[in-house]
Every structure is written in structure tokens, then in C-alpha cells.
Amino acid sequence: MNKSIKLLAVAALALPLMATTSFARDQIQIVGSSTVFPFSSLVAEKFGKSSSFNTPVVESTGTGGGMKLFCSGIGEGHPDISNASRRIKSSELEACLAAGINPIEIKVGYDGIVLANSVDAPAFELTKQQIFLALAAKVPGPDGKLIDNPNMTWSDIDASLPDVKIEVLGPPPTSGTRDAFVELAMEGGAKKFESLAALRKEDKKKFQAVAHSLREDGAFIEAGENDNLIVQKLKANPAALGIFGFSFLDQNEDSIKGAIINGAAPDFDNIADGSYGISRALYYYVKKEHMDIIPGLKEYNEEFLSSKAMGEDGYLLEKGLIPLTEAELAEVVTGLTEMKTVSLK
Amino acid sequence: MTNLRAAHIKKRYAAERRFKMYGLLAIMFALGFLAIMLVTITFRALPAFSQTYVKVDIEFSENVIDPDGAREKVQIAKADFQKIVRDGIYALFPEVTNRKEKRKLKKLISSEAGYHIARVLLADDQPDFEFIGTKQSVWVKSSDDIDSFIKGLIRRDVDESRRRVNDQQIGWVDQLMADGRIEKRFNWDFFKFGDSRSPEDAGIRGAVVGSFFTLIITLLLSFPLGVLAAVYLEEYSKPSKMTAFIEVNINNLAAVPSIVFGLLGLALFLNFFGMPRSAPLVGGMVLSLMTLPTIIITTRAALKSVPPSIREAALGIGASKMQTVLHHVLPLAMPGALTGAIIGMARALGETAPLLMIGMVAFIVDVPTGFTDPSTVLPVQIYIWADSPERAFEAKMSAAILVLLFFLVIMNAIAVLLRRRYERRW
Amino acid sequence: MSYLTLFAFLICTIIIGYFIGNRRAVGMRPAVKSKLPENKLHSLPGFHGTYVALWCGIPSLLLLFAWLFLEPSILSAMLGNALGDAGIGLSQDQLELLKGSIRRAAQNSQNPIDDTLLPVVESYKNIVNSTGIGGMVVIGCGAIIGLYFSQKKIAQRFAARHRVEKIFSIIMLLSSLVAVLTTFGVVVSLIFETIRFFGMVSFTEFLFGLHWSPQIALRDDQVASSGSFGAVPIFAGTLLITAIAMVIAVPIGLFSAIYMSEYASPRFRSWAKPLLEILAGIPTVVYGFFAALSVAPMLRNWGVDFGLEISSESALAAGVVMGVMIIPFVSSLSDDVINAVPQSLRDGSYALGATRGETIKLVLLPAALPGIVSSVLLATSRAIGETMIVVMAAGLAANLTANPFQAVTTVTVQILTLLVGDQEFDSPKTLAAFALGFVLFIITLCLNILALKIVNKYREKYD
Asked: Which spans in C352-462 are helix H?
């Protein structure tokens, strides 16, 4: 034993030598949103395979954590690209600019947000008002005053809906998916109520506070960011509905089905042409300062926006990314070639 | 009187049997749980070990591969090999002309097939370009959906709208089967490749190598440090405020959520020392900070249980403190220290959360070759696959778990052998 | 690679140093055998050898590490000089980027670089080589100087053993200080963000508030709906799940340990123990899936059968699975300590007519108590710090309840979700993660101090 301990000790001492100090990074480093992660890692892989550059390293850190890393400085110790499932915030941009970073914004497409349940359960056809009535913390009562949400089953909301307990699994408040869902579905539904519409004219902040608060009495269950887990839980529990990204519905058609919202089924075409109203834009930000320095960074951006990726038959679309319209894409491409950076308003 | 005593003894024996029973039941419960998990995982993992191949007749037409006839490797490598594979599959079904149907047909084969053909053909530094202009039968990987269909994971009898493979595609597959153009092979690529976003191409190699590097660092740092610290605290230090402080600190570190160690690693190793992100070196250091308390605590418990008479005897015949400890006490405490190492390393092997902060929860295709190359580890790979929308990753995930457990069993076996050499009763 | 050569050189010097010291000491052994202490070597020759080896190794290795740490900045400064005019007029960041591309070009000639900079790349390569050689020479000399002076000190009455032991005990002390430094590091990496958090959210609300709901704005143009940061439900949830886990793990683990060490045949034990240890090594992600997809639905269905309302994210499911995971912590460690109780105690007890069970309960367990307690404490710690199982199985609903059938959330779940969220990193939402970590740290610290007091009070030494 003594011998092996001595050997171990010698090996332990040799460790710091491995940290080759004059380290120079020669692959692209990408951080950020877990929603953009599947798409950007796909591009990274194809890019690495079809070019002479190293395959970029793509991390999934969440948008906020990614932005924090992204805006912390220029140079090899800091990532080149940050994926985001929302636009950069002004405070983040300030931090970036203060560190001498000029980010270029690239909008890559949309992600549909679906409400789905097990195929063994009854199909849902909902309006946004009904979603609001099911999930809001406070709803307008019979006299128009706000009361705590009394609806316990879907049939409480509308007799045509199935008589099952309201049980919706969804993302936590820290998630961009949740944010978009609240903004588009809940707020969209809230606007349709007269009393709330009046409130909106009167006091927009108060209206938003009502529209954006999800109930916390157990009908809405925060289930974390792992969309696959939500899908599995839906399979195990046919009474529940779940809120998650479109690509997961796309891959699991055999076991779950999407609810029709405001008359539009959640499928690729409906989301792309906007008739299915709940989707959010995805972005990434790239450092202008790194463009000519980090090998392959320019080419990676070109690959992302190429027709191979984003075209009608593009590989990103096959994986469920909802594409930009042609005009939008053209604008993004010019933005990239002109290196148009984001600036504070 | 004797009756009473006999009854009493009977009662005691009954209690004795019950007591033994409880012990056996406890072990059986734990082992049963382990067995259930292992069986489930193995069953789920089976599909990942085979891969469906489709035989396609490919025409390596010069127009596509080398339009200017220069025969330059760099240029040819950039050619659209996927297109010639696509043309190959279209040629098998000349009756399909409609664009939409062609798109469905194209989806029978892996979108990475062209890349692999190019890789094989251009493997040499100076490849001969004889294949250009020829027509060859090549086995290419099927797409993940077709693969799942062949393996029975996508069932024929469910409604078409609820399948990822439609009736027409099934027809094509049936025809290919009848022609002997479909074959299932052992999926060696799973052990040869790094990660990929295409399930049929995704492999475990990168993560295995990454885990290996990371754990070497963890073991090298945490075991010697942990044992030395334990010896100091248990054998050398006199009870004082200082040692009590250290002891409380160590116990407390064991309860710190692992992700917090990640925050520490980010602040200390990456931001302060400027070490590279996503590197096994940093990962191993963070994990060793995490395992250190486990090893110290278990080694101390083992040292505590070495009878004082051993020490007294050694000191009595004139051994110094260090000789007593190194020659007599520590070898007797080694089984305990090794148990600590096993459990600590097992935890380090399965840990994901702290690695998130130091950039190891990442998509990395290239297999790492050193301690500072970007890499990921097995549990992270499992987590990433578990989080991927593609269904075929489910089996890959279970297979990766099996690989991880294999790793674990080997590691444990080594430690158990060592432990057995030192174990004794006195 | 040159560093590995240097390292090998150092190791060789250390080994040579050992033998030189050893031989010198042997040579000084007095010819006359005598019982008088002044006629004997003070220490065994091996200690003299070790003394030389330590003096040869420690300073030079320290030098080496210092060099490794300093080299990048030295090289960077020299590169700045070599850049000369090319670096003038650039900002600090631009300069760093330029240096980066020069380094890349020096590493691999395929990397693109401006032609005007090629001479700089060449001179940078020279700088790297010459500084590397310079550093290595200095370090190598350090080792040899150490060797020379320490071996001169060797004398018949030289107290090599005392010095060696002193050095070793210092090394051991330093090792145990690593834990303290880690604690310090943990505190430092949490405290700044925690202070910022308490600048935004009141301390009392966080510590005593009963409502946890960080539903606050994600984007600029939004308004907060409700943001309350009462952490009591989260700590209560952690406590509940940990308690459930311990209810599973302690009895099962302890009985397993007793069975393995006292009843089972050596063959059975040699298989069962490592098998149980596999439980500790299954990735927690796997346990998480198992808890969320198998155990939780099963419990819910049982609940329906028995007319109980069991949530699909019940604390019970997460707790039970976590309990199974930490069984080996209790079983293996307790088995080791029970096994280490001297056989004489058992023999004594049997001789008095006690059954095995009675011996275990009345003799072995009390004797092994300190070890068992520390194993249970370790298992508890592990349960408190566990993340992935609860992230998947327990969910995020911050209910304040002691009912194991309801959903609760834990500190670790919240920390993870808050840290990887899409919100801005400096918002109170993310900072709350740091505060949670910090407060948990303080709480476990208090519990540990308490536990230490209790353990010390009951600690006994048997032989």
C-alpha cells in the first residue's frame, strides 16, 4: 500500500503540469439558452463536419447565465456566442458595452409553445379565455370583480370541456417558455374579458399583474425545464396537460397530442404562418470583436443562416425550428454582413 | 423454574431469529431495488446496441464530387456527398417523382450518411480518387425513425397520424426488406464516436474519455489529501478550538449542495486562475473538493475504530508517532478509507450539477485527448440525451447508463480487491 | 511536454537525494557497538535519506508551481514588448485578442494570421522557448542546491527523524486546511451575491416569509406580477424530504450492516457489500427518472386505491428513492466500523451467554456508535445536498406542509432552477439562489456544531 500511496502522491504532484498554461482556444465557444441548444448544437455539428474548423462547443446554461458569461469580457476566456430565448435586456447590454463588447443580434426563428396531453385522454379544444380561466391566479367573478380562481375542473369553465381536474404541468417562472406562454396565451385571453380590458386601459401594470400571475393552488404545477420529463409524466398521468416546446410534440406524436387553441392545431404550418398564436422568437448574440479573430466564427454564422440549415428543406426545420419569414431572414443576413450591432435605445 | 427458563431462552432465540431476519430483509430490499433498476435499464438500452443499415447503389458522379476535375482532397471533402446518397435512394424507387414524396423517401436514410462515406473514402492523406465515376453498393445507416421502426419501437398498427413513419414509408421499407437491402448490425459506432445530434450517429466515446480524465484528477487529488487530513485530525491534532473548527467545517462541506461547488469552481479556478472552461482538469478539481469530505469522514471513522492497544504497543516498543501511524494504524484503517474512496468516487462519477457552472454540460463532438480539451462526462451525456426531443435518444441514454455502471463496477472491483487485502479482525 | 521532463528530473533528483542521505548516514554509523546514546546514530539512515529527499523536492516543486502560475503573465508581458509598434493605439481588450491570435498561430501554423505579424509569431515562439528553458534551469538548480546543503547537515547526532516528522505533520495539517479553505471559498463565492440579494429583498421576509413565488418580470417592458421570497417552505421541504430519506436509509442501512458484519458468511458479504455500493454510484439523473416515472405514478395509484390524495410530485416518491440511494452510506460505513470492533468484546459477550443479537445490541452497537453516527450524519448531509433526484421528482411547488403525500420543493431544486433560468443574471431571482445556498450553509453549520457536541459527549474508546 505504501508504494501505491507514494505513486499516487507523485502523480498528484504532476497534475498542475497538465494545465498547459499558454493555452490558446481554437474552437468557437457557445453558451446560453437550453431552448436554442438543440438547434445551435445541430449547426455546430454540421459545421464541424463540413468545414476544416473544430466543432464548436455548445453549452446549455440558460439565457441569463449565458448572457452573464457572454458580457463578462472580450478574449479567449469568454464565449463568442450566447444563445437566447428572449432579447438581450438593457442591463445586460449595458454590461456588454461596458466590457467593450458590441453584440450582433441574430434572430434565428420561432419556437411554438404547445399545450398537450396523453393520446389516451380526451382531446382539448380551447380558447385563450379558457386557458386564462383555467390557469390565472385571479379571474373576474360574476360581478366583474377579481376573485380567487374557483375553477377546479375543466367543465367548471365550460360545460363542453371534459370533466377532469385541472392539472397543468409547466415551466417555472425563470423560464423563457413560461414567459412567452404567459404573455401570449394568458394575456391574450385576459384581454377578452370586458372588466379586464377596461382595467388594461386604466392601469396597464395592474392588468399585467393579473394576466401574468399563474395560480399556485396545485392546478398549475411547475415541473422544471426538462421537457422530456413533462412528456413522460403526461404519458403516466392521462389527466394532466403539459406546456412545452413544439419539437417535443413533434417527436412524440404517438403518445401525446396537442390541444387546439383558438381553432388552430399546433402543427408546423400553423405555427409558421402565425395562425397558431403562441410562439416565441429565438435569438443568438455574437461578439463583433471576435468575428475575425476566432477561427471559423464567421463561417459558423453563415452556416446557421444558410439555406442548407434554414431553407425549406433545411436540417433545422426538420428538427422543429419554425423559420423566419423571407423578409425577416433577409434582414438578419444583411445585419450580419454589415455587422450591425445592438445599441442602447 | 426450568420451564420458565426454557421459555425465556425460547423467547430470546426467537428474538435472535427475528433480528437476523430484519438484517436479511434489509439487504434483500436494497438489492431488489438495484435489480429492478438494472433490469429496466438493460431492457431499455438494448435497441441502442444495434443499428439498421440500408444498401444503396451510389453513383460517384464526377459532376457532383469533383466538377473541375482537379482531384484535390480539400475540395472533394467539401462536395455534397449527401446528394449522391440521396440520388442513390431515389434511384431505387424511380416511380417516386412528387417532391413531397421524395422528401419522405429521403428521410429513410441518415442525414449523416454522406459525411461518413466521404470520411471513409478520404481517410488517407493521399487518397486515390478511383472511386470517382464508379457506381458502388454501399451500406449506409438508416435514419433514426426507420431504425426505431425496424426495431419495433414505432408500431405498424397505430394510426398513421400518430406515427413518425407513414404508410408510404413503411411500404418502401417492406420493399427494401424483401430485396435484402436492409440489415441490422451491432452498433460499434456507439463506442467509437463522440456526441451527435443525430441519434444514429451519437456515441459515448467522448463522454467515457472525459469521465476517465476527470476521475483520474479527482482520485489523485482527493484520496491522498483526504487520508492525510484524516490522519492529522485523528492522530496528530490535540483537541483544540482549531481542530473542532476544522472538523465542523469538513462535516459541513459534506452537506453543501453540489452545485455550490460548481459556483466555487467558476469563481476560483476559471475566473481567478484563468483555467480553460469545459476542461476535465477543472472538473476533476471541483469534484475532488466535493469528495474530499466523504473521504476524510470515512477515513476518520476507520481510524477511530482501530483499537488504542495497537498504537500503545507500537509506541511502547519505541516507534515514533509517524511510524506508528504509517506502519500500524493506517494499514488497519485502509478498508474504511477505501470504502470512503469508493463511495466518494462513485458520487463523483455520477454527478452533473457542479459541472454545469464550469462548462462541462455541453455538446461536444470531438473526443478529448488531454486534460485541458473541452469535454463532457457520462452523467452529463445521459442528462443531455434525456433532454433531447428525438425519441431514439431514450435507448442511447439507457445504454450510456449501462456504460457508466460498467465503469463503476470496475472501479469498485479494484477498490474491493484492495480492501480485502487489508481487512482483518483483531 | 518539457515540464514533464523537468518533473521526471526532479523525481530522479529526489530519489538520488534519498540514497545519498541514506548512504552518508550509514557511513557515519559508529564502528563500535555500544549502548551509549552518543555512540549511536540519532535517527535511522532512512530518516536521513528522507530528510535530504524532502529538502531536495519541496522547495523545487514549490518553485515549479509558482513558475507555472506566473509563466502566462510573464509570457504575455513579453509578447506585448515583442509586438512593439503593432500594439500601439489598441485598447487593452483588442491587445488581448491580438495576442490570442498570435498564440494560436504559434501553436498551429494553419491558423490564419496577418502577414505583417509573422515576425512577431516567430519571435514569440523564441520567447516561449527561452523562458521555458530559463525557468527549467532555475528550478533544476533549486533542487540540486537543496540536495547539496541538506546532505551536508547529516551527522551522527543529527535529529533527522524529528525534522522529518515535523515536516510530515505540517503537510498533514496543510491537507486538513484544504477543507477549511474550501469552506472559505464557498462562503466567498456566495456572500457577495447574497449581500446584493438582501439589498433587494428584506432579510426578515426571506428568513421568515411563508410564501415563495419568484414570479417576477423577465423582460424590460414587463411588470412584476408577484415576487415573494419567503424561504421557509423551501427549507421545510428540504427537511421533509431528507427526513423521509433517512427513515428509509437508516434502518435498512443499519440492519444491512449488522447482517453483513455479524451474520453473513464472508462469501455473501464480499458480494453484497460492493453490490450495495453500486447504489451510491448510479447517476442521480437515473434515480430522478425512476422516481418521477415509476415510483411517483405507482404511489399515486395506490393513493387512489386507498382513497388518499397523493400528488404526482409527492415528497414521498423523491424521499424514498433518495433514501435508497444513500443506503450504502449507512450500510458500508457502519459495516466497516462494526467489523472493526475488537473480537475480544464479542468473545466476552458470548462467554457470558448472550445471543448474537444481544451482543450486537448491547455491546457492538454502543462500541461502534461514533462511527455509525458519523455515517448517518454523512448520509444526511448527502440527502440535503442532493439535487437531480428532487429536480426531477419533487418539482417546484413551494408548499409549506408536513404531509409527505403533497408536493414540496427543496433548496437544491430552487438553486438549480434559478441559476439556469432565462432571466437576467443580476435579478433578485438569480441572486436568491446564492442566498438560499448561503443560508443552507449556515443552517447545516449550526446543525453540525450541535452534532459534534453530542458525539463528543458520548464518545467512548473500547478495546
From this structure: 356-359, 365-385, 388-393, 411-419, 428-458
